[in-house]
């Protein structure tokens, strides 16, 4: 862009501005940068050095090359809806915002694939192809606004990944700018199993530490012929959990199997999309099955039987698409809805073997009592992916720290049950230390070895994903001081 | 170094009773070892690798031996590490639908065990009676049902890997959804044993289908335009086939007795859903085609014989003919072109060629049998042909001598330096399956 | 099971106001931003984020900035002003927000602070003062201006100015506005000056008061006529309180909350005796309903404002709720409906006007993507932020289906802006108010009954 109007003494900002064409291509004033000091995870904040808005792969590559040559830390950002702080510029990074690269490049219905730029919003893909009866399966709750580039970075899941898998199962090809500015293309034309190590699999979910994705080939699916959604209310959590296990054991693979507990129900009912759930139940299940119309009634019948066997208070099948949509809107806006009952919340993302559900939920209730903080639970019960939401008020001294500890304790409970510390939100800044709950030092080193191959200078999104003793404490302090100053 | 010395040194770190000196090396498929070891535990593997790593000994890894002809430019490494004795189920939590198993367990044993629990591993690899789960994962195997169920990379949720330095690294976990750290499972799936020795594998399972059928649709006039438009229309419907595999006439003859291009369209669901989909197929059946429906046991029988059509590396080839297998990847519907081209090569190259490929996933397998010159020339022809389609061709089976003459993995990709970087980082002394993989890794 | 709020020890929220850089009274309300958890669900709903892709121009970004000033991290200066004033105040984010954060309210409060800290200068001040202080609140002056406009149009001066290129001396965006000025007719407040009540046609079912609006009555008096016709036809006696004034929305949007309060008080008193206050301008209706927000620090007036705002109703909702005669005559037209922000997002009125339109025989409604996306008018935003307004309008026009013959909506500001869009894009679509279309159907019905027209 023209440098007219850019008032700064930072030569790097001027040079970066020179790389990018068009208006509104760089931000560097404090007031503008402040909007980029965090993503969906708000506990740690730091100002970036600048935010650049490239229009195409070549510009991304030039920016990256510039940063690489001048040792400037940098990172990529999409819509900034990540929940673990992966896009927070902890080291005063140059943020490369990919929101201007938001084209749907091509759709090939016959071969069931689409090519998008990283800034393309998840739900827009489905909306663009739904008239032909196709959709894009990964559906994180933030799909209204999150970008597919971000989804690749985080290996995003969603309510329907129980049957259809997470992002990695739907990525066929990537164009990537490596941390030295070199551009590579993996999975040409979306052809599977390209010879060699599976770099597609490795890059997906690498939380923006191995490269910056600039073009993505995804698999698209045909809409299922039939879809039925069931809502079931349980008087106690144990019955609800047992129903989850029994549905799966019956040989049914639901498209989605979601659970909310009492506090979560209180929040969604107080927020923008209330359904009218009874307030005195301990658990509700939202179950969706899809597939061939001729076989679906049998599945629904089985599900209703299982619910009844587990003392369900009330169970109903959605009677219209409108009703179904309302149930899902209520569920999908669940996190944001916490704002209606609490000034702040911290969402955790542990995974446990499904059979441990009642035991771990009990432990979470104990943690809630121990820390004196309410914890709501909204989760993907079908695949054991829990989302304990720790409610707190950051304005009360010490409460943020308490919430962080309570969240960490929930993750410890998941790890103890043989599970994982994150199912879909990623490690980011938030769960760096908790990586130790499930991996030994050697196992963590095995992963950082891989990072070194791609990102030897560690300029790209440094300080994320892995615990680095000493260093991360420093960073935390830095983040705090910014918050307090 | 002499075999005897190696044997003596190994004895110090490993039980002698599980060792064997290989006298008559020079196996037609290569990938052997001077001393074979048969560890029963992960710990023993760790000791062997530590020894090898310290002393610069090369290690060749083998499971059931079905893929012995797949890659590799070394006739005989120092140590042949067989996982045949590292067998058995470690953990099966029925309610969680996950299974942890030792790498040397033959695939079919697992499926039989799981059947009692109405579950299965949703993979359909070749030679299931012999192929071990470790080998299947290391080669990222898949079959026609990949269309619905994905490949090995989609089924694996956790691994235990012994690194070349003897350290045991866990990747992934025991839960079906997990994004903690890098998705390291992916690194090892399909790595052909060049990065570590898989010892334990955790897989996610699926329920056994309540009913299944396989619909064979033969195109009696071999009209490709017809096949293409049928496939496109069927794929555009809301039916949910688990396979849509195009079978070349010569392979169809072997499997069904009739020499036509044939589509094997499988359904697995509850009975009413399967029958519904069969009648949908009938409703769009193109003229001049023949439809046969194989239900339940008959469908299973069909697939059983299907999985044994390719050469099996553990059985020596007595025919005197050269056998080769190609794995070809192209954009889905280009599979039609590849299968046709393969079929045409039979006459021009005087070979028996059995080809099949999935119209919904883009992978083909071509089995070639005949004179070695003709086989090589046909492979080169097909490789050039798929290059025009932006695809690739990997040689999955070829005698050792011929592997010296033709690049098994094709050209190196522009990002080969990343492969090299990964290999060097994990196996700096290059002891594991050297020269088995892409670009001589 | 589950821990209840009451089980926990309650601590008082600590006061963070001491760091605040908001120095004037009526600052942005802490409770409004406390609900925002920065989830980002608002991003895609925001027209200025769509255009810029920049988060300081997104709802959550603006909320974050507004909060940062209160926390003492930012000062009220021109860099802060830019994102706050670039907001269209379209409220789409309020609809999208899972926690119902009142972003619009925060923006208006922040603008109040900015205007006091940094008064306007230069031509912006002149324009703003002209419109907000000297014109809108003064019905007579507006009327006079209207007469000038009328003269300008009738005298052929308009043609003269356009043809001679005189128009080039007016800034471009104002010239574009000029091109689409509606033809000025006699305001209803003048016309019915001496009628205390305009009687219902037939039996009186209820009595309503009518806010004629300032600009509406001068520039769009036809629509006011139509509104009165439709109301009286459906059994309503209509009163037009003469001491009513401009609703103040434009002032509040511009940060002039003091003037807003002054106008609010005048209207509250003017409509004191009314049971129902009918509004046909979405922006005005929304403002009237939000009067209590202006009096957060004045309990007495707050109470009065609350009583008043409950009486306010948009014409489409009022008709829908109380029932109306389904017209018999056919209006053959393919229409699209544009949701005015302050109707859809501001008042949650979406289905009522649509159902009203569909009740007119012959009307065929065409789907429009993003029907509830702002057109860029946003009060006088198109005058103060012309570039952004233009881009927002371009984006809107891309979604207007070419096959539509009419674009129907319930807000005068949108009508001017959309007319400009139609003109600039070389379309020939007619811009119509919902109530106008209904009125035409009634009129046609009457003519049919009188036998003037054959079926």
Structure report:
Chain C: Component of a complex that catalyzes the oxidation of glycolate to glyoxylate. Chain C: This is Glycolate oxidase iron-sulfur subunit. Chain C: One of its GO terms (molecular function) is metal ion binding. Chain C: It is an enzyme of class 1 (oxidoreductase). Chain C: It catalyses: glycolate + A = glyoxylate + AH2; (R)-lactate + A = pyruvate + AH2. Chain A has helices at residues 11-19, 30-33, 57-69, 122-129, 148-154, 161-164, 199-203, 237-249, 262-270, 293-309, 321-332, 334-337, 357-371, 399-416, 435-438, 441-454, 471-484, and strands spanning 26-27, 50-52, 74-77, 94-97, 104-108, 113-116, 134-135, 171-177, 183-186, 212-219, 221-222, 226-234, 256-261, 283-291, 312-317, 344-347, 375-380, 388-392. With 485 residues, chain A is of the alpha+beta class. Among the domains of chain A are: 104-222, Uridine Diphospho-n-acetylenolpyruvylglucosamine Reductase, domain 3 (2-Layer Sandwich), CATH 3.30.465.10; 226-416, 3-Layer(aba) Sandwich (Vanillyl-alcohol Oxidase, Chain A, domain 3). In chain A, the strands form 4 sheets. A 7-stranded antiparallel beta sheet of chain A has the order 15-12-14-13-17-18-16, with helices on both faces. Chain A has a 5-stranded antiparallel beta sheet with strand order 5-6-10-8-9. In chain A, strands 1-2-4-3 form a 4-stranded mixed beta sheet, covered by helices on one side. In chain A, helix 8 (237-249) runs antiparallel to helix 10 and helix 13 (357-371) runs antiparallel to helix 14. The model of chain A is unreliable at 470-485 (pLDDT under 50). Among the domains of chain B are: 3-85, 2-Layer Sandwich (Uridine Diphospho-n-acetylenolpyruvylglucosamine Reductase, domain 2), CATH 3.30.43; 89-207, Uridine Diphospho-n-acetylenolpyruvylglucosamine Reductase, domain 3 (2-Layer Sandwich), CATH 3.30.465.10; 211-306, Alpha-Beta Plaits (2-Layer Sandwich). Helices cover 32% and strands 26% of the residues of chain B. Chain B has 15 helices and 19 strands. Chain B has helices at 3-13, 42-55, 107-115, 133-138, 146-149, 152-155, 184-188, 224-235, 249-256, 271-283, 297-306, 335-349, 372-388, 400-403, 416-426, and strands spanning 19-21, 32-37, 59-62, 76-82, 89-93, 98-102, 119-120, 156-162, 168-172, 197-204, 206-207, 211-219, 243-247, 261-269, 289-295, 322-329, 352-358, 363-370, 392-397. In chain B, the strands form 4 sheets. In chain B, strands 15-12-14-13-17-18-16-19 form an 8-stranded antiparallel beta sheet. Chain B has a 5-stranded antiparallel beta sheet with strand order 5-6-10-8-9. In chain B, strands 1-2-4-3 form a 4-stranded mixed beta sheet, covered by helices on one side. Chain B is globular and about 70 Å long. Chain C is of the alpha/beta class. Chain C has 4 domains: 14-117, Fumarate Reductase Iron-sulfur Protein, Chain B, domain 2 (Orthogonal Bundle), CATH 1.10.1060; 122-179, no CATH class; 188-320, Rossmann fold (3-Layer(aba) Sandwich), CATH 3.40.50; 325-449, Rossmann fold (3-Layer(aba) Sandwich). Chain C contains 25 helices and 9 strands. Chain C has helices spanning 30-34, 47-52, 59-70, 78-86, 92-96, 103-117, 122-135, 139-154, 157-164, 172-179, 188-191, 215-219, 221-233, 249-253, 257-270, 282-289, 291-294, 299-309, 315-322, 341-347, 351-358, 381-384, 386-399, 412-424, 434-449, and strands spanning 197-198, 206-211, 236-239, 277-279, 312-314, 333-337, 363-365, 406-409, 430-433. Chain C has a 5-stranded mixed beta sheet with strand order 1-3-2-4-5. In chain C, helix 24 (412-424) links the parallel strand 8 (406-409) and strand 9 (430-433). In chain C, helix 3 (59-70) crosses helix 6. Chains in contact: A-B, A-C. At the A-B interface, strand 9, helix 7, helix 8, helix 10 and helix 16 of A face strand 9, helix 7, strand 11, helix 10 and helix 15 of B.
